[in-house]
Each structure stands twice: as C-alpha cells, then as structure tokens.
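Form P-L/3: holo structure prediction, ligand D-ribose.
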Amino acid sequence: MKVVIGSDHAGYDLKEELKDVLKEEGVEFLDVGTINGDDSVDYPDFAEMVALKVVGGEYDRGVIVCGTGVGVAIAANKVKGVRAANCNETVSARFSREHNDANILTLGSRIIGGAVAIEILKVWLAAGFEGGRHARRVEKISMIEERAGVSE
Ligand code: RB5
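OUTPUT (holo model):
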C-alpha cells in the first residue's frame, strides 16, 4: 500500500511522528509537506495535494493533519472521488474503512495526542472495506457527486 501524507503548520509535528510509524510499519509513503515546521501555511493547499494524488491513483490512501482535522477533511472532500474521514478515535477509524471505504484519514493535532493518533492510523491502515450493502451506499455517495457536479 502506498500512502500520501500532508499537513499544515498545526499538524506538522504530528505528521512527522506519523511518518516514523509508517517507516516502522514498512509502508511506502510520500510527504507533500508542509516542510516548514510551524511557519504558517494554508491547510486547503495540502489537503488538495493529498486528495489529487489519491484520486489520481498514484497513492492508495491519504493522511492529512491540521489543528482539528476538520478543515482538511472539508477541503479534501471537495475533490471528486475523495471520501475523507476525520477520526478522533479508533472505532470511527475502523468503520470509516469497513463501511465508508474512506480513502483519506484526517487527524486533529490539537484535539488528540500522538499516542491516540498513532493507534488511529494503525487501525485505519489495517481495516478493509466490507463491500456488500456498503458498496451500494458508497456508490450512492458517488451519485451525489455526479448530480451535484462537485469539482467540475
Ligand atoms: C490553523 O490555525 C487551523 O485553522 C487549521 O490547522 C485547522 O484546524 C483548520 O481546520
């Protein structure tokens, strides 16, 4: 599995921690930044970069960190084909994969600590989509995108 990861300044430190976890787990990844520590940047820029690499098929999954995980989730979900889930605990993380086939995980560095974030990431990476009735529902989400003309 190939993962693309990004953050704004608020998520920078947590992003670096999560990269260590990806290395330990042997997961191939690309970091799209920010690379400038806590120098202020705009989270939609990094959300969009991660989102495009996932829907473009270059990367299987994306992880984006900002202060709350909310802004990057809102931004990433504007890209057609993205199903970004903001998870602050492992149950949502697991079900976001099993039921919603979430292809991007967003995390809030100001909401959860590093240990919780690492556990969420591990659970999210390990969980698979269950398909079946959930596939029908995910397909309905795609149909909303078609009707609403998202990112056109
Ligand atoms: C940056 O201050 C903050 O607004 C951002 O990291 C994020 O929490 C937005 O949703």
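COMMENT: The CA atoms of residues 4 and 30 lie 5 Å apart.
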